[in-house]
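hey so i finally got around to running both of the ones u sent me last week. sorry it took forever, my laptop kept dying halfway thru and i had to restart like 3 times lol. anyway pasting them below in the order u listed, first the sequence line then the structure token line for each. didnt double check formatting much so if smth looks off just lmk and ill redo it

first one:
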Amino acid sequence: MQDAEAVWQESKTKRLAALEELGSYFREAPWSQFAYTIFWDFFTPSFHCPRPVERVGRLGDGGKWVCGFDHIAKKKDCIIYSYGISDEITFEQEVLERSNCAIRMYDYTINTTNGKAADLVKKYEGRAKLYGLGLGEKDTDNLRTLKTEMDRNGDVFIDILKIDIEGGEFNVMRSILKEFSRSSHLPFAQLQIELHLVYQHGDVLNFFSKWIDALENAGLRAFFSEPNQIPNVIENRAHIDYIEYSFYNSKIDQDYFYAL
């Protein structure tokens, strides 16, 4: 883990130097012909996950890259939160098929009594739950904060937190960092999150740099990323602004992946 942290730190040093040298290309036209080709190069994952990394769920949109899932699956008290279900449940389905994990699924845009997610709950009654709520910065009629839901469910730690909420992830993650700022570490071991920069305007590079810095300061380390190019094909976009990231929480007990 110390070696992985050292490699990550060196990578971040190089990132900051590159941003200083090339960042001006992005100030006026963040998705110009030159800029978009190197945007994600600034944020290439460099942290070494201490266990094998594998895709859980289908190939293409829907699957998530997870660190040490085979190890996590053996836990008797494994907890997974999945925000943003829609009609794509292959990640959740494989989790339930291959593990002893309990999974809490959230989506306020779907029918919680009929459909694929509802059928999954019926099949894995007791381990799978589906809520017609979304993840928010504060509690509203159809949104709840992560802390609110963890308290309601009686959960103190999450093994995998999956977030796919179509652009809301940036503000929500800031809120989560604030919610748990007094804790020694964030209450999850991994974060699998899809980012949607299409909804951001202005100085996108500066915006994203500050956002990912905040995650890293809280101990999160990116160990995998995968561009989602479906919007590029469907909408004929030149630049990639939908991308999957997987983060490992470096502040949890280092024995987590070795002494389960």
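and the second one:
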Amino acid sequence: MLVALDTANARAGIVSIPRDVYLDEIPGHGPNRINVVDVLGQQDDPNGGGPALLAATLAQKLGVRTDYYVRFEFESFKELVDALGGVRISLDCPVSDEIVGEDLVIDLPAGEHLLDGKEALAFVRTRRQGGDLARVGRQQQLVWAIRQQMREENWITSVPALYSALSESVQTDIGLLKTVELARIVMDLDEESIYGFSLAAPDLIEPAWRNGMSIFLVDWDTAAQDVQSIFERAQFAGEDAGVPIRCP
């Protein structure tokens, strides 16, 4: 996810990039999916090479700079959700899946749910229903739910303690003071001030095969224009934004 904060005009832009997006060139490497860029960069330079390579790739393809990064490992993602006391979501249709070999099972009927960290991780990783694009929609839904919950429960006062508790499991180059500053900005935003979209069919991507992999080909010229003009788009509209999650 790319997040753009326009602090002067109190608005934010969010762009989701599916993990199966194909890159015909990764700087210093061969072609591959975008989800391997961070790993390749870390192999080149264990001290931040992953985010640096991803930033260089996004700059090349989308014409945008990246000022900061936040990287969640799976365990730290679960820790964050559990630290919040779980996260509340509302489902229009059931979600069920088992991620083999990782002790992750999810079986949620339609309705309201309070997900713990393990359930939340399964929720944002499953692609049994709707594939990679529907998974992007679920990721957006959960991020929005976390933001709303932190806002309603006034978690802004607890950001320093949360930052400290997660400092060893979440990697970022954002310091504590900047984190508090950015958190205040994000929490104060109204729905009407949040814009965003996902790289999705039919306008920006199309499914294809490369080197035995199921991938998405992107119209990078159009995607770059859309990303750079994100604040001219329709509002994000919270959990209904991005890729619609349709019931089977």
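quick thing i noticed on the 2nd:
Helices lie at 37-44, 49-62, 74-83, 117-125, 131-152, 159-166, 176-188, 220-228.
anyway thats it, ttyl
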